[in-house]
Every structure is written in structure tokens, then in C-alpha cells.
Design goal:
Elements lengths: L1 H20 L7 E2 L2 E2 L7 E11 L3 E12 L2 H21 L7 E15 L4 E17 L5 H12 L3 E9 L4 H26 L2 E13 L6 E4 L18 E14 L1
Antiparallel strand pairs: 1-2, 3-10, 4-6, 4-7, 5-6, 7-9, 8-10
Helix pairs in contact: 2-3
């Protein structure tokens, strides 16, 4: 048995030596990555940021109903949700921009001190949707209309802002990032006393801002004479990073 093991080990060593001899003396290659080339040149990172005004408001809203039975809670939630969705569409929100995000049916319990056990006292139905408001100036009035339609069952959890088509802004951020990277590389080359060559490697990364950065209010039932809820989109930062490797000229 030991003889067979010695033969097998000898074959493995011979294959390993043959593989190493096929590589060039000054370069170590793993797969398709040349480890030596990864250490050549001047490597820098650059960042570009652009301030933009959002043109879309995204609401996370819905209804929550509680009743003695599941059927009663479902009926209440369904009726109110129908009114909420109708209100959204009446205020210019397209049906394609309304998407169910969360739906649940759960028990409502309480602790009975006399029997020392938990008892079921009802059922809660929660139905949440995400609605994109493309007419961002109507965000406040839409929130008020939804709150009035849903009454005490309304839940508005958060609002976020985004840009419908950020491609032009990312083009500007990309230019800034590359300029930032080149400035760093030129400084490093000057400090090192070498001449900077052309880029040999470029990698890009995009940082996407959060969609739901702000809470609005959990339970909304605004009286008729209340003023329109003020909503200010402000500005948001779109950022992009690049990693660039520059050759060093002789």
C-alpha cells in the first residue's frame, strides 16, 4: 500500500515541476492574472460628485386594520386600500408606479394574568405599497389626500427622493472622477521623479444614494381644513469612483 502512495506522490510532484517550468522566470501567473503586472505603474483612485435636484418622490404607504376575525380585518383593509389606490391614481400616480411591497396577517394577543397565558384578542392585516410620484410638487397634497381617504387606518412610513434618469449626471461625475485620478497620478509621478504614461487599467464604481432616507409619519388622519403637508426634496449627491493604473514611461 505504501508503494502505491509513493508512486502517486511522485507523479504529482513531477506534474507540478513541469507546470512551473512552463512559466517565464520573471513572471508568476495564476489563471489569467499576472501578479507582477498588478504591481506595476501608478495606481490611484478618483472621485466625482454631482449635486442634483430630485424629480421623483417615492412613498412607502398603506393601511393597517385590526378586527376580531381575519375576515373582518381583511375586508376593512381591502376597502380602505382600494380607496387609497384610487386616490393615488386620481392625483396623477400611474398604476405602473404603484407596487405592493408588504402584506401580512398576524394575531393580536395579550397576556391573561388570571390564567397566566397568552390569548388571541384579534387579527391585524397590513398592506403596504410603494408609490412613485413623478410630479414631485404634488407630493404634499397627495399625502394629504391619501391620509383623508384612508382615515385612521392609513400608514405612511417614509418618503425618499431620486432622479428618474441619472445618466447625464453620472457622465459629469465620471469626468470629475477621471480628472481627480489623473491629478493624483501626476502629483505622485512628479514626487517620484518619473514620467506618467497612459492608463493601463480603469475600474468604475457607483455609489447609489438611499431611496428611503426620511420618515414622514406613521398614522395619518388629517382634518379637512389642515394645510398641505410641506415636502421639500432639496438636493442629493450622486457620486462615482474610479480606480486607474497609469504606466510609468522610461
Amino acid at each position: 500500500m505504501k508503494k502505491y502512495w509513493l508512486v502517486a506522490i511522485s507523479l504529482v510532484l513531477m506534474l507540478a515541476i513541469a507546470g512551473l517550468s512552463g512559466c517565464s522566470a520573471g513572471s508568476t501567473t495564476i489563471g489569467t492574472v499576472d501578479l507582477n503586472s498588478q504591481q506595476q505603474g501608478i495606481w490611484v483612485s478618483g472621485k466625482g460628485e454631482v449635486s442634483v435636484t430630485p424629480d421623483i418622490a417615492t412613498l412607502r404607504l398603506g393601511v393597517e386594520a385590526q378586527a376580531a376575525t381575519v375576515a373582518e380585518a381583511q375586508t376593512q383593509a381591502a376597502e380602505v386600500m382600494d380607496r387609497v389606490i384610487a386616490t393615488l391614481t386620481d392625483n396623477g400616480v400611474a398604476k405602473k408606479d404603484i407596487q405592493t411591497q408588504y402584506f401580512s396577517i398576524s394575531q393580536v394577543t395579550r397576556w391573561n394574568r388570571e390564567t397566566e397565558e397568552e390569548i388571541v384578542v384579534g387579527y391585524r392585516v397590513t398592506n403596504m405599497v410603494i408609490a412613485k410620484i413623478r410630479e414631485i410638487d404634488k407630493a404634499g397634497s397627495t399625502i394629504d389626500a391619501v391620509a383623508a381617504a384612508g382615515g385612521d387606518l392609513t400608514r405612511i412610513n417614509s418618503i425618499g427622493f431620486s432622479v428618474d434618469d441619472p445618466s447625464a449626471y453620472y457622465e459629469e461625475a465620471r469626468q470629475k472622477a477621471m480628472a481627480d485620478a489623473k491629478a493624483k497620478a501626476e502629483q505622485l509621478a512628479k514626487l517620484a521623479g518619473v514620467k506618467l504614461g497612459k492608463p493601463t487599467y480603469i475600474s468604475e464604481g457607483i455609489q447609489i444614494p438611499p431611496i428611503y432616507p426620511r420618515g414622514v409619519y406613521e398614522e395619518a388622519a388629517l382634518p379637512a381644513p389642515a394645510p398641505t403637508t410641506p415636502i421639500s426634496p432639496g438636493e442629493m449627491e450622486l457620486s462615482l469612483t474610479v480606480q486607474v493604473a497609469y504606466a510609468i514611461l522610461d
